[in-house]
Each structure stands twice: as C-alpha cells, then as structure tokens.
Amino acid sequence: MVSDETPGNGPGQDARSANAGRIRRTIAYMVEHLNQPLQVSTLAAQASVSTSHYFALFKRQTGIAPIDYFIRLRMNHARELLDSTRSSIKEIAAEMGYDDPFYFSRVFKSVHQVAPAEYRRRSGLSKTGPPENGRSMRPLAFPTPPNLTKQPRMTF
Predict the structure, then answer these.
(1) Looking at the structure, do residues 56 and 73 belong to the same domain, yes or no?
(2) Between residues 6 and 69, which one has the greater pLDDT?
(3) Residues 132-152: pLDDT tens digits?
(4) Is the same domain home to 74 and 107?
(5) 10 Å Cβ neighbour count for 25?
(6) Could you say which of 9, 12, 44, 153 is the most buried, measured as most Cβ atoms within 10 Å of its Cβ?
(7) Residue 136 included in any domain
(8) Does the pLDDT of residue 27 top 90, yes or no?
C-alpha cells in the first residue's frame, strides 16, 4: 500500500507544528505579563499540556528553560526602559515586578554582564540629562528569538 503523505507533511509534522504554536502562544503570554510572577504550571495550562511535557517542549523548541527565557525577556525590557526613560532603577525594578531593587540588579547583571546603574552610565543616559554622545548602548547578551519551526534533534 502506498501512503498519500508527502515527506515532512505527515502526522509527526502536524504535531511539531501544533507544539510550535503552543510555544509561540506561551511566549506571547510571557510578553504580556512581564511585570507579574510566572509559574511554569500557568504556561503549561496556556499550552494545554502537563507541566513536565510543557517544559520538555519549550526547551526542545527554544534551547532554554521557560523561566530562563522569561527572565531574559524581562531583563531585555528593563534594558529598553533604562535606554528610553529617566526612571530610577528602583522604579524599573518595580515595573518589572521585582519588589527588591537589589535582587533585580543581580538578575539584570546575570543576564547582561553589567549592573543596571553601570549600563545606564555607559549608555550615557542619566536621570539629569540626555546621553553624552547622543546614542544609547546597543543590546547586550540576548540571543535572537528562537526558530520555533526547527526540527527537534533526534538521538538514538
């Protein structure tokens, strides 16, 4: 018997496509909730899968754990706020959902390899005036968004 399926369009492809859509939806959810605490179980519920299955799907699609991805999204947004506003680090920390600005600073430094105050100083944007050189620093250490349609690695 000959199958009507063309290579790459079979049931396995449909599942991969559906999983990529689930992950895209949960990333959109993350972006919409950057200032709120987030649980993997909430993301799994958004994707209509178990927590353990969601974690595995997300890591397969993006290469990193969901919470690590969420932290990077938060810290990138914080960096954008440092570049575009005169808000204090304490205010930016609060806007990103961190009650403790010192903890926020440690997380920011772990992602961008520079503390937020130092980042702002280097970019030339201070609370009192425009950037010294008229430009802000370029983004630090955030990978390009993952290709959510890549094929999973096969191991035997």
Answers:
(1) no
(2) 69
(3) 444 344 443 444 444 444 444
(4) yes
(5) 14
(6) 44
(7) no
(8) yes
pTM of the model as a whole:
0.71
Band of pLDDT at residue 126, cut at 50, 70 and 90: low
DSSP result, 28-82: HHHHHTTTS---HHHHHHHHTS-HHHHHHHHHHHHSS-HHHHHHHHHHHHHHHHH
Lookup: tokens for 146: 């993952």
Distance CA 70, CA 92 (A): 16
User: Cα 110 from chain centroid?
Assistant: 14
Domain count within the chain? 2
| 68 has a pLDDT exceeding 60 | yes
Residue 105 lies in a domain: yes
- Residue range(s) defining the domain that contains residue 91: 69-123
CB-based contact 107:75 (threshold 8 Å): yes
